[in-house]
Write a structure and sequence with these properties.
Order of helices and strands: HEEEHHEHHEHEHHEHEEEEHEEEHEH
Strand order of the largest sheet: 1-2-4-5-6-7-8-15
Strand content: 15-25%
CATH architecture: Alpha-Beta Barrel
Distance between the termini: 36 Å
GO biological process, one term: ecdysis, chitin-based cuticle
CATH class: Alpha Beta
Number of domains: 1
Keywords: Glycosidase, Hydrolase, Signal
Number of helices: 12
Oligomer: single chain
Protein name: GL10180
GO molecular function: chitin binding; chitinase activity
CATH topology: TIM Barrel
CATH superfamily: Glycosidases
Family: Belongs to the glycosyl hydrolase 18 family.
Length: about 375
């Protein structure tokens, strides 16, 4: 009997230890419209590198109903069905519909969460979206409760919304995730952390965007200390480690230096850096753009992050080494896993060497 009990305990422990960590791959479907080597569609996705594929984004209308933000791409081109079809390549892949995002704002979500009828509209439309298209769950990316046109009641209303979604999803086995602001000041104003954690399968913590050109000086997009502080804050407020997913940005924030001879972190800048050839947004460059530049590159070990500069252009980003530091921290805290924002700005074509270098680094640390 004693030997049997020991064997059962060992078996249970091995199952816990061997449980696969999450690697959640966000996909900004609009990258289909980029030109040349920046164009990204379903054919560019390696389904074996992700446990979850987060199809971004859907929006809502004023009544709380979920709607497509690009019906031509989602349905006419068949991107949704093609994304769900990736489960033929990886039968364990979960494909999630992501609702929200920065451009959707907060006002409509605040109104929906605070109104019972609009919440029911949202939940019913979510069920229809998932059932009709073969999605495995929903990721709600409200940026952010109690901010950008929201109000203080958003914090408790968000808990109510998530509880009602969870109850509606339970008969179907759908997963429910959320994407959340990372830092203490943002998170404490937007979330009742312990309460929301009860109702979701996992929490994608957006541990990036800690600095940008609007600050007036150069800074690191995701320095290790800021990432660790954010995760430790979420843990301290009652978020279970096994529901926290650490976010990695496959992009950098770029700056135009005020004085090209002052090119260190904290140096003054006069605004956003030049746009990259694929992404086309000033102040923002994909890793697949950064790695092609022959800029002078420095790895700052105090921040466990690289930066690069050329003339009056300066960029902070993540590379393979900085991602390794982040994954070591995630493992040390026994987190649920990691996510990337987003697939289409990793070096998915392998123009600078190995394809998907950042995503593969995450997999090597967490899964392989």
């Amino acid at each position: 009997m004693g030997k049997l009990l020991t064997l059962l305990v060992a078996l249970c422990l091995s199952q816990v230890i061997g449980a696969e960590r999450i690697v959640n791959c966000y996909w900004g479907t609009w990258a289909n419209y980029r030109s040349g080597n920046g164009k990204f569609d379903v054919s560019n996705i390696d389904a074996g590198l992700c446990t979850h594929l987060s199809y971004s984004f859907f929006g809502i209308n004023d009544n709380g109903d979920i709607n497509s933000l690009d019906t031509w791409l989602d349905y006419d081109l068949g991107f949704i069905s093609q994304a769900v079809g990736l489960k033929r390549q990886n039968p364990n892949l979960k494909v999630l519909a992501v609702v929200g995002g920065w451009n959707e704002g907060s006002t409509k979500y605040s109104s929906m969460a605070g109104d019972w009828y609009k919440r029911q509209n949202f939940i019913n439309s979510a069920l229809n979206l998932l059932r009709n298209n073969g999605f495995d769950g929903l990721d709600l990316d409200w940026e952010y409760p109690n901010q950008r046109g929201g109000n203080w009641d958003d914090r408790s209303n968000f808990v109510t919304l998530l509880r009602e979604i969870k109850e509606a999803f339970a008969p179907y086995g759908y997963e429910l995730g959320i994407a959340v602001g990372a830092g203490e000041s943002l998170a404490s104003g937007s979330y009742e952390i312990a309460n929301i954690a009860q109702h979701v399968n996992f929490i994608n913590v957006m541990t990036y965007d800690f600095a940008m050109a609007s600050d007036g000086y150069t800074g690191f997009n995701a320095p290790q200390w800021a990432v660790e502080n954010a995760i430790n804050f979420w843990l301290s407020q009652g978020a279970p480690a096994n529901k926290l997913v650490l976010g990695v940005g496959t992009y950098g924030h770029s700056y135009q230096l005020s004085d090209s001879s002052q090119n260190w972190p904290g140096a003054p800048c006069r605004g956003a850096g030049n746009s990259g050839p694929y992404t086309g947004d000033s102040g923002y460059m994909g890793y697949n753009e950064i790695c092609l530049n022959n800029w002078y590159t420095v790895f700052d070990y105090n921040n466990a992050a690289p930066y690069a500069y050329s003339g009056d252009q300066w960029v902070s980003y993540d590379n393979v080494l900085s991602v390794q530091y982040k994954m070591d921290f995630a493992l040390s805290k026994n987190l649920a896993g990691a996510m990337i924002w987003s697939l289409e700005t990793d070096d998915y074509r392998g123009q600078c060497g190995e394809s998907y270098p950042l995503l593969k680094t995450i997999n090597r640390k967490l899964r392989w």
